[in-house]
Structure formats: C-alpha cells, structure tokens
Amino acid sequence: MGYKKASEILPIELVALIQNYVDGDYVYIPRKKGNELSWGEKNGTRQALKERDFAIYDSYLKGARKKQLADEYHLSIKSIERIITKQKK
C-alpha cells in the first residue's frame, strides 16, 4: 500500500471538506467491491511463499531432515511440519 498526497490527486474543495473530519491524520480508503486483492497478491509475497513451501517439500522428499530445513529457512520445526503436511495434500 502506498501513500498519496490528497492535495495532489483530489480537488481542493474535497480536501477542504475531508479536513473538517480529519485534519492531518492518515485515512484508509478501501478498494471498491470487486477490486479487492487477496493478501500478498499485489507485492508477490503469496507467490514467493508458495515457491518457498514447494522448495521445502521438494528438499524433504529428497531426504533433507526437518531440523536442517528449519535452520536453512529460519523457521521452527513445527512450521516445517505444517508446510510438509500442507504440500502432501
């Protein structure tokens, strides 16, 4: 999520009206219905984690131990087990 300066994108009259309600504070404006993005879609985090989880599962199938994977990916053994179980499905 990026910040945009209201005075650069909104008409001055609208900025003045908004200032009656919030003067100098941050305001979150949600997306329109139907334009929503799932968590991690915009910045690629969701895809990166999907690829990481596949790599962990692939290494596990090739004989890597859970402790080794936990150390390599800086995760707990419990997280590695959760990823392996999820990838099996």
From TrEMBL:
Gene3D superfamilies: Homeodomain-like. This is Mor transcription activator domain-containing protein. NCBIfam families: CD3324_fam. It holds the Pfam family Mor. SUPFAM superfamilies: Homeodomain-like. Residues 7-89 form the Mor transcription activator domain.
